Every structure is written in C-alpha cells, then in structure tokens.
Amino acid sequence: MDHEGQILPAAHGIAVGLRSGQAIRIENVHGTQVVDTWALSARDPLEYASMEHTRSWNSSIFVEAGAVVVSIRRRPMLTMIADSSPGRHDTQLCPCSSELYSQLGCEEPHRSCTGNFHEALAPLGMKVPFTPASLNLFMNVPIAADGSVTRKPPASRPGDSVTLRAEMDVIVVLSACPQDITPINGADHTPRDIAFAVLNAPQSGNSDD
Amino acid sequence: MDHEGQILPAAHGIAVGLRSGQAIRIENVHGTQVVDTWALSARDPLEYASMEHTRSWNSSIFVEAGAVVVSIRRRPMLTMIADSSPGRHDTQLCPCSSELYSQLGCEEPHRSCTGNFHEALAPLGMKVPFTPASLNLFMNVPIAADGSVTRKPPASRPGDSVTLRAEMDVIVVLSACPQDITPINGADHTPRDIAFAVLNAPQSGNSDD
After folding, report:
1. What one-character-per-residue DSSP string does B5-30 give?
2. Cα B77 to Cα B68: distance, rounded to the nearest angstrom
3. Interface probe, candidates A46, A91, A92, A104, chain B, greatest B C-beta count within 10 A
4. What is the tens place of the pLDDT at every residue in A21-60?
5. Which residues pair with A140 in a beta bridge?
6. What is the pLDDT of residues A148-159, one digit of tens each?
7. Which of A179, B111, B119, B127 has the highest count of CB atoms within 10 angstroms of its CB?
8. CA–CA separation, B42 vs A178, rounded Å?
9. Does A129 sit within 8 Å of B46, measured CB to CB?
10. Which residues of B touch A50 (CB under 8 A)?
C-alpha cells in the first residue's frame, strides 16, 4: 500500500496515478473539507471524467456508494466502492477559480481548485487546455424543488471517507478546496488538510496468477 | 434580420455566429423537440459555455428566462431574454453520442448531438478536441428529492421559443437532438425539425451613431 495516510495540505492539490483495480481512499480528517476530484485517462488526458455523462449513466445527479464515474466517452473510470459519509456528493457546481474569487471581491491572488488542478498535473508533464467539471466530494449543495441551490457546510463527520476504485489506468487529481468566503468548507470558513491512501487490488487466491 | 425562420432539419446541427448584442430565437416548431445548445467564444473556441459555472452563477440547476449562460472563465456569453415555454431547460444530461447509442443497443451508426456539434463546427475550421456539456433547451428532466432523474417528453407546445442574446461575439451550435429511443423528443420517439432566426440588436435612436 503506497501513500498510506498521506496528507494533502489545506488549499493544495495532488495528482495520483492508479492502475486499473487499485483504489484511493479519501479521508475527510476534520469532517468539514470539500475535495474537488477529477480523473483523466492515463493514456489520454482528454478522456476525462464527465459529470454530465456520469449523471446520465447513474440516472442521478449525485454520486453515491455504488455509483460509477464515466468518461466523456462513456467508459467507466471510477466506482465509489465505499462511503462512510452521508453521501450526496455534488456534481453541480464548478471548481473555484481565480475569476470566481475576483467576483467574490478578492483583490489579492487566491488559491483555487482550478489552479490546483493544473498545478498538480504540471509535474507529470500533463497539460489540459481547459478545466473539466469536478466531482465535489463531501460538498453539501441541497437543491430545492424550484432548482435553486444552496451552499452549506459539509454534513460529513471527522474521519468519514470515500473509496474510489479505478476501472482503467487513471490519474486522479484531488484538491482540498481553498474556498474560505462561502461556508462550503465549514461554518468557520476554514480550509483544512485531508488524507488519502492508495489501496492495491485484493490479491487473487490463485498462486498460478 | 438574417436567417429569419431558417429550418434546422431533424437530427442535424448548425453553427451560427452572433455578434455581441445580436440574439437567436429558437422555435420548437412541433413542441416536442429538444435542442442541444452550445456557445463558444468567436475568438477562442476553448472558451466555451460551461454548465457548471452557469449553475454557480445563477445558483440554479435550470436555465430559465433571465438566466445568464457563462463561460468556463465566468464571462457572460448568453442571456435568455425570452422564453414562452414552461422553462426548466436541462443542464444535467450529456449530449447523446455514438457511445450512448451503442450502449442503447444500436448496431448501426446513429446521428448524435455530439456528432452534430463537431460536424457543425467543421465548415468554420473550428476543432474542439472534446465535447462540452450542452444546454438542453426544452428538455424535460425532472429531478426527484433523492436526486434521481427521469427522461420525459418536452412540456413545451408547438411554436414555443426561447431567445438567447449574445453578450460577447460567439458561435452558437444548435443540434436538433436525434434521440429516438428514449421519449425525450416526444412520446412518439420522433425527432423533428426546429426553426431559428438571428435577431439584430435594437438600433440606437441616436442618428449620430
């Protein structure tokens, strides 16, 4: 097991390669932290996890335990094989970005999930000329009957985790969301560290393998 | 007024350039036809209309009269200035694609909104190496309290139309959705023509202009 208990510091991002069958467990150490998550095919970064195809595949606007995250070409990329949180992970809202922080009144540069996505891919030599929609783990965005959305603190508890199994060789990008203006990362508006671990596929019992 | 009453044949797509201030009226001639719609900046096709940023901007999962469609860089691209339909235009589901039709059991090639998007851009020399999420005009996808989605025939009536005003110079791509397996284009599963017209900006009263 590589990376066990590795910490992703608050407001930062990381890219993690998973071979098909490996999984990543993402732990909400403090319970209040949103994790913007992307997946890209290891062979072609333009085959990315698509929230619109994922909603179509699952006939649901949420990603919950058992749901499959599919690519823009409708190939399974990740399966959520475990989830100890209240679930209902958000697929509606964009990753935060420098433009969003400007619109929220920030006059100084502000770290963002969009920046973290590209920063995390750079050491791998991967460049994506846009920012796909993210799967927003632990993000609590209730939708009213009239379609309006609200941005609430996570309903998860300290230590809650989700586990995503790779269905192909993928690069997973995680961003511990830097948002500190809305309450999306807790009522105290404080981005915090998360933890993650890469889990190897269960070994086959067949010693001839 | 250019293009007045131009017909877009069933199951086909078209790209239409709009200068800032011009508008496009899209008429659901038969009332039962979904129109997958995209916008790209005329200057940089990688600045595309983003459903995830649009939901964030409007704090709503639907695009309705008055809503602004923003780009991946959070710049207004289109405003829905008029809508005679029941509204609630879908932003959840992917444009249909060859992969989707294969998964629905089609053994022969099937026209798709994804194919129409790229086919419509080709004569302009525009290539986009992926397919952004579409704004699905007239598409009726109710969302239950548990987050599940259903695919229903449009609630619009023959002649209902929406009007989108360009807030920058844009290329709008329309696809009269070819879907004939689900009832999304009517209970009789029959894709039909739509009509559209480009409307010039109201002239200023100042003759010195």
Report:
1. TEEE-TT-EEEEEE-TT-EEEEEETT
2. 7
3. A92
4. 999 999 999 999 999 999 999 999 999 999 999 999 999 9
5. A152
6. 999 999 999 999
7. A179
8. 32
9. yes
10. 94, 133
